[in-house]
């Protein structure tokens, strides 16, 4: 049973304050929860409680969320059975009393929820993936890895937020990492030769200096070739457009080209890219309110492109249900802190899978040194993991953890790679 819950301020990969929660059990077992934080957040996400006091960390401190854990949440969960994750999460949701967890803070609730899961796994002497998956998790995910960063993660160096690679032809998890390594470094080389690399963006991808949105595609294709791979066969492109960030309610703004596109023109651009380049996956191609465009695009490309809703669904069960009913996409991005508890996240994944869609477990642009999501991906046999780029330890810790999980699974580990898409492509 839970003896005590404590919380304190730590710092994320951007150096912004976040919180860590410690759950202490009566037998002395502990578990920790480290909370990530997004930058291009969706309007339907659960509420991240920040103090907003200009004199404290420029408004970014999370002392109120920490107090909420130490006082209200700790009191409500004292003596509760740590293995009752769902009950515990429900208790916190009821205690908060708001639809978006804004009173106690989704960060306070999630940190506790993750710490509870970790403490429970430790108490059973299990790895987190075993505990979360009731021993059913065995699928090592296919990685979706960022090569170039843009949008809100690189001061709008490109209008597209993420240019990513998926090693669809890899025969093993190790091979996905090798292929990504080779392409990531080839892309850096190509960009440096042309004087187009400014540095590294928030998620570890290269921060480019371009004047239009076509250039990064050319670099990408050249990097794949230079690394010795065939685009469309060995590896495919994946984009996160994060289109809600471009949309003003009427038009899409391309800052880089100083252009405004109507929704119809924007649709045509998405279509053109999916026809011109070997794109296997596209995330948030339209704003989170533009259902008709999502629907049309899924009808047109859903048989050969994974269409992921991130800001569209925000890991929210109600929104995912509506999306499934309306056939808005064929995949859901899964982020723990968009919804704020471990059990709701597990429910969102199960719901997605039951509909015959694919979940993609994802990190945030502001990450920590924790690898909870690697365990979550394997526990649920989600099949895909998106963690930013192939650099910086807050990213690498997730890729590396999957190597450890695979080793721990031994014979039971499976890897199906690009075959995962057979589930949605018809
Ligand atoms: P965020 O970006 O964590 O800044 O929201 C990640 C994404 O859009 O997928
Ligand atoms: Zn996204």
From TrEMBL:
Query: What GO biological process term is on the record, naming one?
Result: glycolytic process
Q: What is its EC number?
A: 4.2.1.11
Q: Which UniProt keywords apply?
A: Cytoplasm, Glycolysis, Lyase, Magnesium, Metal-binding, Pyruvate, Secreted
Report the pathway entry.
Answer: Carbohydrate degradation; glycolysis; pyruvate from D-glyceraldehyde 3-phosphate: step 4/5
- State how the cofactor is bound: Binds a second Mg(2+) ion via substrate during catalysis.
Q: What region holds the Enolase C-terminal TIM barrel domain?
A: 137-423
Which Gene Ontology CC terms are recorded? Answer: cell surface; extracellular region; phosphopyruvate hydratase complex
| Enolase N-terminal domain span | 2-132
Q: Which SUPFAM superfamilies match?
A: Enolase C-terminal domain-like, Enolase N-terminal domain-like
Protein residues bound to Mg(2+): 240, 283, 310
Residues that hold (2R)-2-phosphoglycerate according to the record: 161, 335, 364-365, 386
Protein task? Catalyzes the reversible conversion of 2-phosphoglycerate (2-PG) into phosphoenolpyruvate (PEP). It is essential for the degradation of carbohydrates via glycolysis.
Of which family is this protein a member?
Belongs to the enolase family.
Q: What name does the UniProt record give this protein?
A: Enolase
Instruction: Give the source species.
Output: Flammeovirga aprica JL-4
Classification from the root reads:
Bacteria, Pseudomonadati, Bacteroidota, Cytophagia, Cytophagales
Chain's gene name: eno
């Amino acid at each position: 049973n839970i003896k005590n819950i404590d919380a304190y301020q730590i710092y994320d990969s951007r150096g912004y304050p976040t919180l860590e929660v410690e759950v202490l059990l009566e037998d002395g077992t502990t578990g920790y929860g480290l909370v990530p934080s997004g930058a291009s957040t969706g309007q339907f996400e659960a509420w991240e409680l920040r103090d907003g006091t200009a004199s404290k960390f420029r408004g970014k401190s999370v002392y109120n969320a920490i107090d909420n854990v130490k006082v209200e949440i700790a009191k409500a969960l004292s003596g509760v059975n740590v293995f009752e994750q769902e009950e515990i999460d429900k208790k916190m949701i009821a205690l908060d009393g708001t639809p978006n967890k804004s009173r106690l803070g989704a960060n306070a609730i999630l940190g506790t929820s993750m710490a509870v899961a970790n403490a429970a796994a430790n108490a059973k002497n299990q790895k987190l993936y075993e505990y979360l998956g009731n021993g059913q998790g065995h699928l090592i995910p296919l990685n979706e890895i960022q090569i170039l960063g843009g949008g809100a993660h690189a001061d709008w160096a490109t209008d597209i937020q993420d240019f990513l690679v998926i090693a669809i032809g890899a025969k093993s998890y190790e091979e996905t990492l090798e292929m990504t390594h080779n392409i990531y470094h080839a892309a850096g080389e190509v960009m440096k030769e042309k004087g187009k690399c400014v540095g590294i963006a928030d998620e570890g991808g290269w921060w480019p200096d371009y004047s239009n949105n076509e250039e990064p595609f050319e670099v990408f294709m050249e990097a794949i070739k230079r690394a010795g791979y065939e685009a469309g066969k060995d590896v495919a492109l994946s984009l996160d457009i994060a289109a809600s960030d471009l949309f003003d309610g009427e038009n899409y703004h391309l800052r880089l080209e100083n252009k405004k596109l109507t929704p119809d023109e924007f649709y045509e651009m998405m279509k053109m890219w999916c026809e011109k380049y070997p794109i296997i996956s596209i995330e948030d191609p339209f704003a989170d309110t533009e259902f008709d465009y999502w629907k049309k695009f899924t009808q047109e490309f859903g048989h050969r492109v994974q269409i992921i809703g991130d800001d569209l669904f925000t890991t929210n069960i109600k929104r995912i249900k509506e999306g499934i009913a309306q056939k808005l996409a064929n995949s859901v991005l899964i982020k723990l802190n968009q919804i704020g508890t471990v059990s709701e996240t597990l429910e969102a994944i199960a719901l997605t899978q039951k509909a015959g869609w694919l979940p993609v477990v994802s990190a945030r642009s502001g990450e920590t040194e924790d690898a909870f999501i690697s365990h979550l991906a394997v526990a649920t046999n989600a099949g895909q993991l998106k963690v930013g780029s192939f650099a910086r330890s807050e990213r690498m810790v997730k890729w590396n953890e999957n190597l450890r999980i695979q080793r721990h699974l031994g014979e039971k580990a499976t890897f199906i790679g690009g075959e995962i898409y057979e589930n949605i492509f018809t």
